[in-house]
From TrEMBL, chain A:
Keywords: Acyltransferase, Transferase. The active site is at C96 (acyl-thioester intermediate), H349 (proton acceptor), C380 (proton acceptor). It holds the Pfam family Thiolase_N. One of its GO terms (biological process) is phenylacetate catabolic process. It comes from Actinomadura rubrobrunea. GO terms for cellular component: cytoplasm. The lineage of its organism: Bacteria, Bacillati, Actinomycetota, Actinomycetes, Streptosporangiales. Belongs to the thiolase-like superfamily. Thiolase family. GO terms for molecular function: acetyl-CoA C-acyltransferase activity. Residues 269-390 form the Thiolase C-terminal domain. This is Acetyl-CoA acyltransferase. It comes from the Bacteria. InterPro entries: Thiolase, Thiolase-like, Thiolase-like_sf_Thiolase, Thiolase_C, Thiolase_CS, Thiolase_N. PROSITE patterns: THIOLASE_2. Residues 8-261 form the Thiolase N-terminal domain.
From TrEMBL, chain B:
One of its GO terms (biological process) is fatty acid beta-oxidation. It comes from Actinomadura rubrobrunea. Keywords: Fatty acid metabolism, Lipid degradation, Lipid metabolism, Lyase, Multifunctional enzyme, NAD, Oxidoreductase. Residues 522-603 form the 3-hydroxyacyl-CoA dehydrogenase C-terminal domain. Pfam families: 3HCDH, 3HCDH_N, ECH_1. The keyword Oxidoreductase applies. Pathway: Lipid metabolism; butanoate metabolism; Lipid metabolism; fatty acid beta-oxidation. GO terms for molecular function: enoyl-CoA hydratase activity; long-chain (3S)-3-hydroxyacyl-CoA dehydrogenase (NAD+) activity; NAD+ binding. This is 3-hydroxyacyl-CoA dehydrogenase.
């Protein structure tokens, strides 16, 4: 008998405030696993009608799976979060798209019928685990010219992207970055971001215990002049700066996915429906363009065009990478569909955790925008990939 | 001058409390959830990990005072909260510092300083919250009590007011605030009952249940949830409900009940409990100022008392000396023990097998010549494991593992491969020598042979062996699973490797080990039997048993001498007495009456209803020179002073501290006497009998 796929819904998502990586950062003395545990516990607390033993899987992504991000972080976090020992868990890695992959993978398993309910998320403590920690690239990459030497330095790939799209100037990138900061500040002021932030205990031997309640990287007062004066660390006379990129950050996310019928049974309120997703590879030295082929693939398969998409949450690893995506799809730099509440340039990008932040924000935007049916979450991925997820607003008024 | 100013100048002008491990008070602002506003969060942290918990001396108190200065003046905060470092809230006063206080004025000053600083937490413009995240004792609990509200982590392993146990009272607010918070009955559980029960600790849920905390949260996000709860309390979304405190008859009844218990257990021997009770009794009708002032007085008196110094000395012995046995050989000489043999299958052997299996988690083989006895012995050990399983003390898997570790064999060949064999056979030299010879034929040259003898010579027992250097004495106290003392006896030829292995095994068994010379009856039994012999002698002379029984009450022993004799068994008491008589006939006379009592099959001077057995009274009748209680006590103490001096001169142990440690851990002698030698010194008996004290003034008493 042919198998029937089940509809999968995004019920709820939370995250810790994002911190700046490094010895002075908010989470400098806080463990990565504690961050994601806090997120999972809050997720469960916010959905009291979900019996914990009904969670069929906990998939947690981390790019560097060692130390406090090791020990099969999904399983370790489930145990530490106090979920019943009968709830399994695993670790996922697709660099920046880790949490996104945790969602697509567990979501697919729900559709397949293997799970009813899953928790998916990610964590990255880039202070404790700088990108590339402990990696040992195979010498063949360079010897056989499989990738350009710049491919493993994300900032350098962003500079490469400026080369490929010469019309994306530094000024355009800076202007985009400034708008991201302004949009984020406005969203904060309007209380749009806070509902899904989990206040998280932080400790410092010197300062004592504290509580993280908002994103540390925010720079609401960013100006074009200020951005223009920043150094270009990846290239002499380059275009990529700390101001038009996401920073190095610490943080964790977690979301709740369920089969739509099970959500109904358990009294869970879905916010959006997982329609489809696609991942695609590109040349690693221009990894930032990854969302383009991934999104093309996805739209084509679903017989949609960009005109059908009402909201886009695109990860802002670098402004140039967002602009390359917008150029390709002929979307204006300041199109209101794109990251209406700001993005990673303002809030931060703790690698493997960011995918779920995009979904949290899209799901909240859907609640406000019942006129919108479809939205995308998309991001570029190190080693030359892109991933895009197509979501349908369950509150879309056209369905009523 | 305020206590704060006084201590500031004291610390500035003198090299005082220079070695205090200062608990810092770090102030950090937090934004409370739900828009409840900004709170100042004070973290208590001495900069060390949890193995060195937060304590308070004058410097730490002044730092906390500074932190409170900092927050008291602010009008931009809605609450002040206090929490600890990971796993530790705070465990009270710095005891080392208490010991260093030189005068009653200073003692009163430290009492006042604690009050003056802590009470500010209850008197700020804004409500205060204590988040008890980990272990909290004494002054740590009192900090929390001064706050308006308290939350506690469900994983708090230990919460207590241990002051009375040490010889103090919870005098930084505890005796006033706690009964007024949770009622006298519950407060006395914490202030009196638990300290009396070997300083029992409350776990987080128990403390919550008693009403000490207003809310309890899981450890995983304890601080976050405490802050969220704080926000809801401040916004009026959570109403904090407490059980009303009955300030009428219930209060007085609870105090009377506790007084009865204390008197029954201690017979007025420990002033701290009585002072604590008096304070709780009066706290009902006192104002805060009056209550705190009364605590200052009590602390000033008690800090400058020999009882407290003895208590601190005893505490130090059990915390430090018990963990680093004096005279033990280098740890690195110890050989690994991967299999244990137990010769015998009687009750003691079974208990030993169980203990070794539980603690060492290696195979334990019991042997006996009789299959039935062997089955019974192994069966007993397995049965005890089942009981542990039924009580939830071990899991089913653990129970299965432990049972599989304990096996029996009719042949000593089963000891092949054992690294440590202990015998618990009949207390008869020739039997033990034979058993050891048989074991030696089977085991490796390195295998340690241990004897659980309570009175026979270890040296003699080893003398017939090929390798006598492998033999050690391993003297447990009944019940072996409970009593923490292990006398490790070095025979004349015992080598360092065997001894080091014995100490390593003792530590793995979680026993406090004391090195003892091979001398008759070692330490605890020799002292107890000397005491008993003196008391029996008084009875033989015509002192009524009940008078002799009461005579030792001021020592606050866990049980009167004849009750102890009943517990040990008169036959065993007689046997040890005979051993000691053989060695020291003058000091350990044989009581014909005691022998008669044993011969008559009497197991106690009491009948089951605790009245004196007339037949035993009859056996002991006939003396014509009765003593008074005071006389009996005096001669008993003189005997103890004499015996202990002789033991030290003989080198049975290295120092009076070891005697005290043995008596505290092996015989349950009370902390407030510091074991026995501080008491003998304090009452002048040591000097009277031996011409000198056992310990210099200041070691376990006030400095002179």
């Amino acid at each position: 008998m042919p198998r029937t796929a089940r509809d999968v819904v995004f019920v709820d998502g939370v995250r810790t405030p994002f911190g700046k990586a490094g010895p002075k950062g908010l989470y400098a003395e806080t463990r990565a696993d504690d961050l994601v545990v806090r997120a999972i516990r809050e997720l469960m607390r916010r959905n009291p009608s979900l019996p914990p033993e009904r969670v069929d899987e906990v998939a947690i992504a981390a790019t560097t799976q060692t130390g406090d991000q090791g020990l099969t972080i999904g399983r370790a976090a489930a145990v530490l979060a106090g979920l019943p020992k009968s709830v399994p868990g695993y670790a996922i890695d697709r660099m920046c798209a880790g949490a996104m992959t945790a969602v697509t993978t567990t979501g697919s398993s729900i559709a397949f019928g293997a799970y009813d309910v899953a928790i998916a998320g990610g964590v990255e403590h880039m202070g404790r685990h700088p990108m590339g920690e402990g990696v040992d690239p195979n010498p063949r990459f360079l010897a056989e010219k499989l990738v350009d030497p710049s491919a493993l330095v994300m900032g350098a790939t962003a500079e490469n992207l400026h080369d490929r799209f010469p019309q994306i100037t530094k000024e355009r990138a800076d202007a985009y970055a400034m708008r991201s900061q302004q949009k984020a500040a406005a969203a904060y002021a309007a209380g749009k971001i806070q509902p899904d932030l989990v206040p998280t205990a932080v400790r410092s031997a010197e300062k004592g215990w504290g509580l993280a309640t908002e994103d540390e990287p925010l720079r609401p007062d960013t100006t074009m002049e200020g951005l223009a004066g920043l150094k270009t660390p990846f290239r002499v006379a380059g275009k990529v700066t700390a101001g038009n990129s996401a920073g190095l950050n610490d943080g964790a996310t977690a979301c709740l996915l369920a089969a739509e019928d099970v959500a109904r049974e358990l009294g869970l309120t879905p916010r959006m429906r997982l329609v489809d997703f696609a991942f695609a590879g590109v040349e690693p030295e221009v990894m930032g363009v990854g969302p383009v082929p991934a999104t093309e693939k996805l739209l084509a398969r679903n017989a949609l065009t960009m005109d059908d998409i009402g909201l886009i949450e695109i990860n802002e690893a670098f402004a140039v990478q967002v602009l390359a995506f917008l150029e390709h799809f002929k979307i204006a730099d300041d199109d209101p569909r794109v990251n209406p509440w700001g993005g990673a340039i303002a809030m931060g990008h703790p690698l493997a955790s960011s995918g779920v932040r995009l979904m949290n924000q899209l799901s909240r935007l859907f609640e406000e925008r019942t006129d919108v049916r479809y939205g995308l979450t998309t991001m570029c991925v190190g080693m030359g990939m892109g991933g895009t997820v197509l979501w349908e607003n369950v509150n879309w008024e056209g369905a009523k | 001058m305020s206590s704060v100013e006084m201590w500031r100048s004291l610390l500035a002008s003198e090299d005082r409390a220079a070695d205090e491990v200062v608990t810092h008070a770090r102030v950090r602002d937090v934004q409370l959830p739900y828009g409840a506003g900004r709170a100042a969060l004070i973290t208590l942290d001495n900069g060390h990990d949890h193995t060195k918990p937060n304590t308070f001396g004058p410097r730490g108190l002044l730092e906390l005072n500074d932190a409170l200065d900092q927050v008291a003046g602010r009008d931009d905060i809605v609450a002040v909260a206090v929490t600890g470092k990971p796993f530790i809230f705070a465990v009270g006063a710095d005891l080392k510092g208490v010991n260093a206080l030189k005068s009653k004025d200073e003692a009163r000053a430290i009492a006042r300083l604690g009050h003056d600083v802590f009470r500010r937490l209850g008197e700020l413009r804004v409500p205060t919250f204590a988040y008890i995240n980990g272990a909290a004792m004494g002054g740590g609990v009192e900090i929390a009590l001064h706050c308006t509200y308290r939350t506690i982590s469900s994983s708090v392993p230990a919460l207590s007011l241990p002051e009375a146990f040490l010889g103090l009272v919870p005098g930084w607010g505890g005796t006033y605030l706690l009964p007024n918070l949770i009622g006298a009955e519950n407060a006395l559980k914490v202030i009196i009952e638990n300290p009396l029960a070997q300083n029992r600790q409350l776990k987080g849920p128990q403390a919550y249940e008693l009403g000490i905390a207003d809310a309890m949260f899981d450890p995983a996000d304890f601080l976050e949830e405490s802050l969220a709860w704080t926000a809801r309390v401040l916004k009026g979304e959570v109403a904090v409900e407490r059980r009303p405190v009955d300030k009428g008859k219930a209060w007085d009844d609870a105090v009377a009940q506790a007084r009865w218990t204390v008197e029954g257990k201690l017979h007025g021997a420990a002033p701290s409990y009585v002072r604590a009770l008096d304070l709780v009794a009066a706290a009902k009708d006192r104002t805060r100022d009056e209550g705190f002032a009364a605590e200052d007085d009590a602390l000033a008196d008690l800090i400058m008392s020999d009882e407290l110094r003895a208590g601190l000395y005893a505490f130090d012995l059990t915390q430090k000396r018990a963990k680093k046995p004096a005279g033990a050989p280098d740890k690195s000489l110890a050989r690994p023990v991967t299999k244990v043999g137990v010769v015998g299958a009687g009750l003691m052997a079974s208990q030993l097998a169980l203990l070794f299996a539980r603690r060492l988690e290696v195979p334990v083989v019991m042997t006996d010549l009789d299959q039935e006895r062997l089955d019974k012995g192994v069966g007993y050990a397995h049965g005890e494991i089942d009981k542990l399983l039924a009580k939830g003390r071990v899991s089913a898997d653990k129970a299965a593992r432990l049972k599989s570790l304990i096996t029996g064999s009719l042949s000593k060949d089963a000891f092949a491969g054992a690294d440590f064999v202990i015998e618990a056979v009949f207390e008869e030299m020739s039997v033990k020598q034979k058993v050891f010879a048989e074991v030696e034929a089977v085991v490796s040259d390195e295998c340690v042979l241990a004897t659980n003898t309570s009175s026979l010579s270890v040296t003699e027992m080893a003398s017939k062996l090929r390798r006598p250097e492998r033999v050690v004495g391993f003297h447990f106290f009944n019940p072996v699973a409970v009593l923490p003392l292990l006398e490790i006896v070095r025979g004349e030829r015992t080598d360092d490797a065997a001894l080091a292995t014995a100490f390593a095994v003792g530590k793995q068994l979680k026993k406090s080990c004391v090195l003892v010379k091979d001398a008759p009856a070692f330490v605890v039994n020799r002292i107890l039997v000397r005491l008993l012999a003196e008391i029996v002698k008084a009875v033989d002379e015509g002192t009524p048993i009940e008078v002799a029984e009461r005579a030792a009450a001021p020592l606050g022993l866990p049980m009167p001498p004849f009750v102890l004799m009943g517990l040990v068994g008169p036959a065993i008491a007689l046997h040890v007495n005979e051993t000691l008589h053989a060695a020291f006939p003058d000091r350990f006379p044989l009581s014909e009456n005691l022998a008669k009592m044993v011969a008559a099959g009497k197991t106690s001077v009491y009948r089951p209803d605790f009245t004196l057995d007339p037949e035993v009274v009859e056996i002991f009748s006939g003396g014509d020179a009765p003593s008074t209680e005071e006389q009996v006590l005096a001669r008993a103490l003189r005997a103890l002073a004499e015996e202990i001096r002789i033991m030290l001169d003989e080198g049975v142990v290295g120092a009076p501290q070891d005697i005290d440690l043995c008596m505290i851990l092996g015989a349950g002698w009370p902390f407030h006497l510091g074991g026995i030698t501080p008491y003998l010194d304090r009452t002048g008996i040591s000097e009277e009998v031996n011409g000198a004290r056992f310990l210099e003034p200041g070691v376990a008493s006030l400095p002179r």
